[in-house]
Amino acid sequence: MKRLLKILTGRFFAFIVLILLQLALLLAILSNLLERVDLFFSITYVLSGITVFYILSREENPAYKMIWVILLLAVPVFAVPFYIIFGNKRDSKKVARQVALYNQYVRNEEAAECSSRAAEVRERLRSYSRSYSRQSDYIWNLTRSCVYDRTSASYYPTGEAAFIAILEDMRKANRFILIETFIIDFGYLWNSVLRVLKEKVQQRVDVYLLYDDVGTIKNFPPHYQRTLSESGIKVAVFNRLRAHLNPRLNYRDHRKLIIIDGDIGYTGGINIADEYINRKIRFGHWKDTAVRLHGDAVISMTMMFFQQWGFTTKEYIDIYQFSPRTNEPGDGFIQPFGDSPLDTYNIAENAYIQMINHANSYLWLTTPYLILDTQMITALTLASESGVDVRIITPSIPDKWYVHSVSRSHYGQLIRSGVKVYEYTPGFIHAKMFVSDDRAAIVGTTNMDYRSFYLHFECGVAFFNSSVVHQVRNDIQKILSVSRQITEKMVDRTPLVTRFVRNLLKLFSPVL
After folding, report:
1. What per-residue confidence (pLDDT) applies to 262?
2. Half-sphere exposure of residue 93, counting CA atoms within 13 Å on the CB side?
3. Rounded to 5 degrees, what are φ and ψ at 373?
4. Does 103 lie in the same domain as 78?
5. Which of 18, 345, 367, 484 is 20 to 30 A away from residue 136, measured at CA?
6. Of 40, 70, 87, which residue is a domain's last?
7. Do 109 and 47 lie in a common domain?
8. For residue 291, pLDDT beyond 50
């Protein structure tokens, strides 16, 4: 009862109620204006047709567009407002100008920061592998995130191990700490982090905290930002929920970045909540991973942070004061990168697809959600049918049953093409990792679903000829040893009703 009362009195519940009231009011106004039901539906279909034409004219993934077209033609009364909220990525001219100006500023700053050695490092990567050089050049050309060599890297196979290292590095900070995250929840982990942050503020270390409003709305009380600010922490809340219909409501900051003194940077799947270190058990054992960079490559992570900070606060920062100050021996080629829904580039998805296409021996990946578009399915099945050992690991105990149902709806097609699909039997695997041929890997925040590919701000790190590649492979081998392989026979035994529900949910996968 206490939990129910908390939900009913929370800001998120109020937001949902107000949105539903607006939709109901919109339909009521249309119904009252149009006394004839047939005329009402005629105009609805006209509006749906205009929306369909608009969608088809957009430069977006065809599979993403077609799902919305089907929904608009099938249920136009509900699909038009849902597209406005969940599908449309068009922003106001004011926002577009803000994004363009800040992107130009950040890219110019970063280009100047790494231009002195960028050409040399890229040429060395090209000598190592022309295929991976092309992948790196794609990231460079669209994001201006350099590939670096003077950077060491560490891999953490659990959230527990990662946060022990993070807290230790935070305690040593003497210049600044930057934290960007999707979820924060009260508990042991947040209390531990907050204690260190307050200590560092007392030591005159600058602390910046950026968190997503949706990721914390069920956890933080109203005005908690003010409480944190009063302790000396610089706080910004990304894209606050406003109770009005607006496509920007759907943009979320799903990135996880922790940067210390400009020299050390962390990213991966871990948010700041107790389930990520298994102090709170929700879906069995929570498997997550992270990477730590030390050296030149951290500047790209710092750029990503302040890009989001500027977009949220409209505050422009002199980024040079946050540059790395230590030199580290190289650990292969390392390239942090970000992805944004505010452009027409699917950088994270295309980086995944390039790794799939370049694989010669094997391609293994882990993901909590497997909601695939046609482009991704084609890449995976083509690689498998060409003799590449493609393996995918998803959770056995999901955090969202409906999303997992859509994930399982793809198993049959993948398995029939030779892809090996596994479910992590100890519980929920939240890690987002790709590894290929003992030569390349990506670790980051991007799930294999429509929301991550199209509507979230994401980040990751590409590793080429790095020790992290081997560590990721070895960890996935351990994951496979405790995972259950899904066979075609198991898929064929799925009840007809379950298949129908899965395929119905797949239709709505862009909004899941």
Report:
1. 95
2. 0
3. -90, 175
4. no
5. 367
6. 87
7. no
8. yes
Which structure tokens are listed for 275? Answer: 């389930």
How many other C-beta atoms can be found within 10 angstroms of the C-beta atom of residue 169?
21
- Nearest in space to 457 (alpha carbons), one of 181, 137, 184: 181
Q: Could you give the CA distance from residue 463 to residue 332 in angstroms, rounded to a whole number?
A: 7
Matching residue, tokens 């560490």: 154
Mean pLDDT within 353-381: 95
Tokens 């942050």, residue? 197
Dist. CA 381–CA 372, nearest whole Å = 12
The residues, ordered by sequence, that sit 6+ positions from 13 with a Cβ below 8 Å of its Cβ are: 7
- How far apart (Å, rounded) are the C-alpha atoms in residues 354 and 455? 21
Residues of the domain holding 449? 347-511
- Return the ∠ at Cα 131 (arms to 129 and 137), rounded to 5°: 100
Q: Sheet containing 257-260: which strands, arranged edge to edge?
A: 151-156, 290-295, 264-268, 257-260, 176-181, 206-212, 234-238
State the Cα–Cα distance between residues 141 and 193, nearest whole angstrom. Answer: 36
Distance CA 64, CA 72 (A): 13
Burial group, residue 106, by CB count within 10 angstroms (0-12, 13-18, 19+)? buried
User: How does pLDDT run across 87-102, given as a tens digit for each residue?
Assistant: 666 555 555 655 665 5
Q: What percent of the chain has pLDDT over 90?
A: 60
- Shared domain for 239 and 157, answered yes or no, is yes
Q: How many residues does the chain have?
A: 512
DSSP summary character for residue 272: B
CB 331 within 8 A of CB 296: no
